[in-house]
Amino acid sequence: MSTDDLGADRLTAALDTRWLGREYVFLSACGSTSDEVSERAAMGAKEGLVVVTDQQSKGRGRRGRSWHSPPGENLYFSLLLRPALAPHQVAPMTLLAGAALAQALAGLGFAPRLKWPNDLLLESSTGLCKAAGILAEMATEAGQVRHVILGVGINVNTQDFPAELARQATSLARIRGENIARLAVLAGFLRTFETRYEEFLAKGPASALAAWQTFALLGQDCSVESGSQRLEGIAEAVDESGALLMRTADGRLVPVHAGEINWRKAQ
Question: Which candidate, 44, 68, 43, 40, places its Cα nearest to that of 56?
């Protein structure tokens, strides 16, 4: 894959959004696309900015983890949002982005599943494996959201993963058996996300959460590590705050706002 398949001219020709991605920066390499967007946001960049790179040296996921970011194979990008929301209303945006990505990949013939709160999985020869992740970062001022940065990493064409990821990660190309055009994946996500985001702002999170639950792994036994607390039960749904609702053995429905979820049997 050449790096110029993600150039601005080609994206503009492929894009049918009204505002998302119309300000577009492609970098051959950077530390983190979210850091690049953060710098531009501080200088007044408008909502809808998208920064894409061919290679990250400091890509990151949840809980301080790094994101495997080899050059020329995958999609690493971040987008800038400036929603007129209170900070407590932002949490469902990670689920919103997951739903949009799953919908876009389903349109390309894949069968994605979503694991709360931010993982997209695909069925592989070793079971459900992670193919994408989403990280939301928020800046506030005077009790209001100044901006939200959504960072997205999608394993598009990687065939070989490091040993520590080999059994838990996959890519679109490994599932399909051929290389996938990164531009088509990016344009499809931006198109779908723009629509979902506008619905979210106009109507609240209900439609976004319904879309997320269409692809979600729910109704299964799981455990969640949240700080020093461990909860076990059935993952039943998510609520409008973006929390996972777990049914414990004693019948309580407990909201989980953050933590690491482990499925006892993901299927």
Answer: 68
Every domain of the chain with CATH number 3.30.930.10 lies at: 3-215
CA dist 8 to 22, 136, 242, Å?
A: 9, 24, 34
Confidence band for 267, pLDDT divided at 50, 70 and 90: very low
Reported as a single tens digit per residue, the pLDDT across 73-125 is 999 999 999 999 999 999 999 999 999 999 999 999 999 999 998 899 999 98
CATH class of 3-215: alpha beta
- pLDDT digits 0-9 by tens, 120-144: 999 998 889 999 999 999 999 988 9
CATH 2.30.30.100 domain residues, the chain: 220-263
How much is the pTM? 0.91
Which of the listed CATH numbers 3.40.50.300, 3.30.300.30, 2.30.30.100, 2.60.40.10 matches domain 220-263?
2.30.30.100
The whole-angstrom separation of Cα 151 and Cα 65 is 13
Rounded CA separation 206/9 (Å): 36
Q: Which one, of 92, 132, 126, lies nearest residue 113 by Cα?
A: 132
